[in-house]
Structures are given as structure tokens and as C-alpha cells.
Amino acid sequence: MSAVLPATAPGHRDSRPAPRLPLTRLTLQALSLLACLLLWQLACAYRLNLGFISFANTPRPAEVLQAAWQLAQSPKLWPHLSSSLLRVGAGFGLAAVLGVTLGLLIGRLRPVRLSLLPPLEVLRPVPAVAWIPLSILMFPSSEGSMIFITFIGALFPILLNTIHGVEGVDPRLIASARGLGTQDWRLFTEVIAPGAAPSIVTGLSIGMGTCWFCLVTAEMIAGQYGIGYYTWESYTVQAYPNIVVGMLVIGALGMGSSALITWLGARLMPWQGAQR
Question: What is each CA distance from 96 to 71, 127, 210, 214, 220, in whole angstroms?
Fold first, then answer.
């Protein structure tokens, strides 16, 4: 004998979840990119002029695609990419080591905070462009000055996020660890550093993006090879599609490197996934 299911009472809300649209994350991302390309094409095709912005002389997507294909076949592509990657890698690596170390010390030790944080806070608002003349005077080679600019750009986001991460560690965790007999060094490495790790990873990701921004600025002035130099050179010779190609390459490299840092951080912090 089959059971009869009770009818839903009037006014009673069905607790079953509403059906979701069959749109994956990748599909939504692809659609957003296609929408941007379509708006770009329409603005250039109709020479859109809004008064404060004009697309009359902006290269179209097809022209940019052709310029990108020419760059991909050019023997200068690898020298440009390798030069920028090496400068970013060196500057970001130095900034990561120094920024995380200083951030942990400043966030945890009051004497270090009082002695080091004031001069760092004075230097923090200085833009990377303002450091370029001084870096040229300080370093005998242009490579050293460009690496220094990328280092300065990445240092302060990493430093400040590390400090905030240390300050945000739950005091109850520290008190519990001390109550269990954890000494200062083990407390630092097993409680404070893991607790501040999410903020450190965020600072590293932001610092990587800032690193690319500062590198482009440095290469425009002192470089001979590099994606930033390629973009600036394209402007000086009025190769406007190449400018957009350089911008897109910089954006892709910055997005990819920041995503790599976030992925590595998630792999190194399994306890974060367990909390979600």
C-alpha cells in the first residue's frame, strides 16, 4: 500500500533550494570578458565621444590581436618577458623576506615597533616614481635601480599586512599556549606566525600587484628591455595597438602571479580551509 504524501499547507514555504542556473564560475568569467570586448568594439566602431573620454583614436580589438600575434612571433618577446620577470622576482623576493620579518617583529615586540615603525610610516606614502631619481644616484647600474623600485613598491603592503596579522591573533590562543608551557620562540613560530599567515598571504598578493605597477614605471625611464619599456616605446613610435598589448601582458602577468601566491598560501594553510 503506497503512502500518500501530505499536501503543502497554504502559506507554508518550500524549504527546498531553488534550482540554480547552469552557469559555472568559468562560464561567468568568460562571459564577463566577452562583454568587455563587445563594449570595447562598439565604442571604437562608433567612435564614442562622451566629452571627457573619446574612443576615436583607440585601437580596436582586432588590431590589438594582430599586434599581439606579431609580438608572439618576434625574437624580442623573450628578452622583454625575462627581463621583467627577473626584476619582479628579485625585488619581490627581497621585499617578502624583509617585510614579513620586520612585520612579525614590529607587530610582536614593542621596542622594535617604537623604533622602526615611525620612519617606515614616513617613507610609506612616498610613491615609487619619486624614488626613481634617488635610486639612479644610489645604484651604479640601471638594473639595480629598477629592482630597488620594485622592492619599495612591494615592501609596504607586505609589511603592514603582516603587522595587522600579528596584532589580530587571538590573545586567548597566546594565553593558552603560554599556559601549556610554550616558550617564546615556539610561541612565535607555532602560534603567532600561523595566526598571522592569512594576512601575510594577502599582503604578498597585494605586494606582487604593486611590484608590477612599480616595475613598469621604472622600465619606462631606465630600461632597455621589459614589458614596461615595450609599452612606453610603443607610445613614442605611435604604435597604439602595441600599447594595449603591453598593458594586457602586464595585467595577465600580475593577475597570474598574484593568483599563484594565493594558491600557494591556501596549500600551506590547510587549517583555513577546515574553518570554512
Answer: 32, 19, 13, 15, 24
